Amino acid sequence: MRYIYILLLLFVFSCSKQDDCDNPVDCLPPLTTKGEGTIGCLIDDEPFKPGGSQLSGPTQQAFYQFVDGGYYFGLTANHRSSKKNIRIFIRNESIEENMIFNLTLDEKNSNFGEYVSAAGRYQTNNIQNGEIEFIKFDEENGIVSGTFWFDALSEDGEVAEIREGRFDMKYY
C-alpha cells in the first residue's frame, strides 16, 4: 500500500504545471540563448511544441549553410502525433545577431514561414507575412536563438496566426 502512495505522489509531482496553463504563452518554452534545443509558438492561440518519436528524424532542427554562393537558414519543428509543423527559411542572406528578416514569399528566392497541418499547407505571402529576429547568433558554438511570428494563408483562403514564437537551438 505504501508503494501505491509513493507512486501517486511521484505522479502528482512529476506533472508539469505547463501542461495545463491559464495563459497559453506560459506553456511555451522560455526564451533562452544557450542552445538548449527549444522551440515553440502559438498556432491560432494554441500552444505548439515539437514532439513525438525521433525514429523518423528529428522533431526540431536548425541549419545555416553556405550553398551556391549564399547562406541559407532553416528552422523546423514537428509534432508527429498532431501532424503539425512549422518551417522558416531565410534564403541567400548572411545572419548576424539582432537582425530581423521579413517572411513574405513574394518571389521565388525570398524568405518565408510555413505551417503544415492535417488541414493543409499555409504559407506567408506579400499580404500575410511576418518576421524572424535573431537575438543570438554564435557561429563559433553553433547557437541560434530568437523570436518569430507570421500569418500564413492556405490554398482555401484560410489564415493561420503563428505568434509568440521563440527558439534556442544548435545548428549544423
Q: Outline of this structure?
A:
This is Lipoprotein. The protein is mostly beta strands and 172 residues long. The protein has one helix spanning 2-14, and strands spanning 38-43, 46-48, 60-67, 70-79, 84-90, 99-103, 112-117, 120-123, 130-138, 143-154, 159-170.
Verbal overview:
With 172 residues, this protein is mainly β. It has one domain. The protein is built from 1 helix and 11 strands. A hairpin with a 2-residue loop joins strand 3 (60-67) and strand 4. It is globular and about 40 Å long. Pfam families: DUF6252. It comes from Salegentibacter maritimus. This is Lipoprotein.
List the domain count as a whole number.
Answer: 1
Question: What is the helix content?
Answer: under 10%
Q: How many strands?
A: 11
How can the largest sheet be summarized? Answer: 11 strands, antiparallel
Molecular shape: globular
The secondary-structure element order is HEEEEEEEEEEE
Rounded to the nearest angstrom, the radius of gyration is 18 Å
Low-confidence stretches: 1-18
Strand content: over 45%
Indicate the mean pLDDT: 88
Number of helices: 1
What is the rounded distance between the termini?
51 Å
Structural class call reads mainly beta
Protein name: Lipoprotein
Pfam family, one: DUF6252
